[in-house]
TrEMBL record:
It comes from Limimaricola litoreus. CDD domains: Succinoglycan_BP_ExoA. Residues 3-171 form the Glycosyltransferase 2-like domain. SUPFAM superfamilies: Nucleotide-diphospho-sugar transferases. This is Glycosyltransferase family 2 protein. InterPro entries: Glyco_trans_2-like, Nucleotide-diphossugar_trans. Keywords: Membrane, Transmembrane, Transmembrane helix. It holds the Pfam family Glycos_transf_2. The chain crosses the membrane at residues 268-285, 292-312. It comes from the Bacteria.
Length: 322
C-alpha cells in the first residue's frame, strides 16, 4: 500500500488509523508513506506511529509529486511475488476492511487491471460542506460515476484504489512528469493496451474537500492543466462533460465582449449566474443550513478554474470533442 504525502500533518494520522488501526489483516500489509519533503510534522507523526505499527515504512520522494511517489513505492517495497498495489490518499478516511475489500474485488474480477472506487466528499467548515454537496451532483462533477455514485461496472476511469502489479509494471507505472491527472493518463494507457477497470460501487472513501476558495481554485486549475497534458500526449477525444466548462467560459467571455453592441448577449452569463444561484438555494434546502450559499461559489470555481487551466494547457491543436 502506498500513500503519497506532502505537508499532511492535519490528516495523516487519522488516515492511517482508519486503514490499519482496526483491521488485523492490514497489520501484515506493507504500508509506504512516500513523503515529498514535508515542512510540517508529517514525517514526525509517521515516525511516531511506526512504534505502534511496525509495517509502516517512511520513504523519501525527492521528486515531490504523487505520480513519482507511487512509482517509487513499487520500486522500493515491491517484491517479485507481490500481486497488488493499493493506492490511498492522505486526505481521505477509509472504512473498516477497505484493503481487504480491494483485494476481494480483484479476486471477483480477475480481468481487472485496476479497481476503482467512489469518493464521498465531506468537510468541516461551511465552504467544504457546500463544496462536498456540489461535487456529488451533475453540476459539480458532470455525472462522474466515481463521485458519489452507487453503481458498479466496467469503466474507463475512476478513483484509483488498487492496481494489478503485472499491468502496472508492464505499462511503466504512472507518468512521473504528471503533477495532476496522472490517474486518467494511466487509465487511458491501460484501456488502450487491452486492460480493464472495475468500478466497485461499495468501495467508498470519505474525501475531505479543500478548506478555502483559493485552495479549491488551485486544485481545479491544476486538474485542468493535467487534463490538457493528457489530451496532448495521447490525442484523445474529449467527452462533452469535459469540454463543457471550457466551451462555457469562452462563450461567456464572448458574450461580455459583445454586450456593448448587442446587449441581448448578456442573457448567457445571466443564465449561468441564475444556475449558480439556484444551486446555492437547493444546497441550502438539502443541507438545511446557510452554508449551502457557498455551493454556487464552489460551482463557479470548479467550472472556471478547470476551464482556465485546460485552456492554458493549449490542447486544442490536437484534441477532439465527441
Amino acid at each position: 500500500m502506498a500513500i503519497p504525502t506532502l505537508n499532511e500533518a492535519v490528516h495523516i494520522e487519522a488516515c492511517l488509523r482508519s486503514l490499519i488501526g482496526s483491521d488485523d489483516f492490514c497489520k501484515e500489509v506493507r504500508v509506504a508513506i512516500v513523503d515529498g519533503g514535508s515542512s510540517d510534522d508529517t514525517c514526525k507523526i509517521v515516525s511516531s506511529l511506526r512504534r505502534e505499527f511496525a509495517n509502516i515504512h517512511l520513504i523519501d520522494n525527492p521528486d515531490r509529486i504523487q505520480s513519482a511517489a507511487i512509482n517509487k513505492a513499487v520500486r522500493d517495497l515491491g517484491r517479485p511475488e507481490s500481486r497488488y498495489l493499493i493506492r490511498c490518499d492522505a486526505h481521505a478516511l477509509y472504512p473498516n476492511g477497505y484493503i481487504r475489500r480491494v483485494i476481494q474485488a480483484f479476486a471477483q474480477h480477475p480481468d481487472a487491471g485496476s479497481i476503482v472506487g467512489v469518493l464521498d466528499a465531506g468537510g468541516r467548515n461551511c465552504f467544504q460542506r457546500a463544496s462536498a454537496w456540489l461535487i456529488d451532483t451533475p453540476l459539480g462533477s458532470g455525472g462522474s460515476a466515481h463521485r458519489g455514485g452507487t453503481r458498479s461496472g466496467w469503466v474507463k476511469h475512476g478513483h484509483h484504489a488498487g492496481f494489478r502489479l503485472d499491468w502496472f509494471r508492464r505499462l511503466g507505472g504512472y507518468d512521473p512528469t504528471f503533477t495532476h491527472n496522472e490517474d486518467a493518463e494511466y487509465d487511458h494507457r491501460l484501456i488502450t493496451s487491452g486492460g480493464r477497470i472495475w468500478l466497485d460501487g461499495d468501495l467508498r472513501v470519505d474525501y475531505v474537500m479543500r478548506p478555502t476558495p483559493k485552495a479549491l481554485w488551485l486544485q481545479y486549475w491544476l486538474y485542468g492543466k493535467g487534463r490538457a497534458r493528457t489530451t496532448r500526449k495521447h490525442e484523445v477525444r474529449l467527452q462533452w462533460r469535459q469540454a463543457t466548462p471550457a466551451l462555457s467560459l469562452v462563450a461567456q467571455l464572448a458574450a461580455l465582449l459583445m454586450a456593448p453592441v448587442w446587449p441581448a448577449s448578456l442573457a448567457l452569463p445571466a443564465l449561468y449566474l441564475f444556475a449558480l444561484a439556484t444551486a446555492s438555494g437547493v444546497a441550502m434546502a438539502k443541507m438545511r443550513s446557510l452554508c449551502g450559499l457557498w455551493a454556487g461559489v464552489a460551482a463557479f470555481i470548479i467550472h472556471n478554474a478547470w476551464a482556465l487551466g485546460f485552456i492554458w494547457g493549449k490542447p486544442f491543436g490536437k484534441a477532439r470533442v465527441r
